[in-house]
């Protein structure tokens, strides 16, 4: 995406593409192409968007933390920001679970090797020494 934040900001402020296109003096299909990265924005378009969303040009052009913007009512981007945070936390949790499962698998493999080295029968759970002494 050419301008990563313009769609996020539009949704955050609950604006329709038609409204933003009207503010920029372009058609809705033109704005849609710009939002999807198929059309370059003019510098005037970017300035108007910065004014409309009350953000800096760097916030508009690059990925910066969502907590830096406010909604059109002046409040923080709470529900949108929480949704982004929850998604990030869920992704981290999935990575952590995968890592823990891998560690458990490696630990199990090491324990099996230790038991084999001690002469234990890993499959039956009984030691070979115990069956040899009978």
Note down, in words, how this protein is organized.
The structure is a single chain. By secondary structure, this protein is mainly alpha-helical. The protein has two domains: 6-76, lambda repressor-like DNA-binding domains (434 Repressor (Amino-terminal Domain)); 81-132, no CATH class. Helices cover 63% and strands 0% of the residues. It is built from seven helices and no strands. Helix 2 (17-24) crosses helix 3 (28-35). The longest helix has 40 residues, at 78-117. It is rod-shaped, with a radius of gyration of 28 Å. The model is unreliable at 127-131 (pLDDT under 50).
Here the CATH topology of the largest domain equals 434 Repressor (Amino-terminal Domain)
Averaged pLDDT, please? 77
Secondary structure tally, helices? 7
Cα distance spanning the termini: 73 Å
CATH class call of the largest domain: Mainly Alpha
- Low-confidence region ranges: 127-131
What's the overall geometry? rod-shaped
Strand content: under 5%
